[in-house]
Amino acid sequence: MTWTDWSAMQPLLSQACTETFQMVLWSTLIAVAAGLPLGILLVLTDRGGLLQNVLANKVIGQIVNIGRSMPFIILMVALMSFTRWVTGTTIGTTAAIVPLAIGGIPFFARLVETAVREVDNGLVEAVQSMGGNTWTIVRKALVPEALPSLIASTTTTIIALIGYSAMAGTVGGGGLGDLAVRYGYQRFETELMWITVAILAVVISLIQFAGDFAARSLYSRGGRSGPAPKLRLLKATEPAAADAGKTA
Fold it and tell me: How far apart are CA 162 and CA 154, in angstroms?
């Protein structure tokens, strides 16, 4: 690739990076906003959960499983009518956000479910003993305690959506995937294709590093914020207080 070719490709790479960033950003926000409560609901409605409802849990779980099992390319095709209804078109960056977000919701929901299940049940009992309702338990115990795992889950979701966005580019979604196919594959611009691969590799590595750093920082501080440490302290001091009361 000559300097002239590189100068001509720079605007294309810049536009493709911007389109990929837009697709991943908006689809991640939607996936997290919808997947977080969905994952928590899967835990709360399970057997022994605070909102135990086996039927609802099975229905939600099955919907999530179907969403996760469907390959993204097939999901994009299946959602074309819905995408056209929402955005008015089936091609372009805006249209690609719809299947990306819908594909990311069940993916993130399962990760949230796994993270929340790891929370010590003693914290839930401590909040209940102080008269906390379900919303208080979720807000004061489950989410703060699971925050490091939730950060790691978000990182995993972002990386998966970057891969999905590259696939979306093959069917007119724009972004780096579209650039790699149109110029790297169809026009045999091998250098440009490898530049695209390098950009994706660097971006994914940076995102993974940032996510790991954030998760480790939270783990080093106990993975808690707000009242959660107080709940642990309360749990530890309750037996001592009870023993003192018996002695008196």
Answer: 12
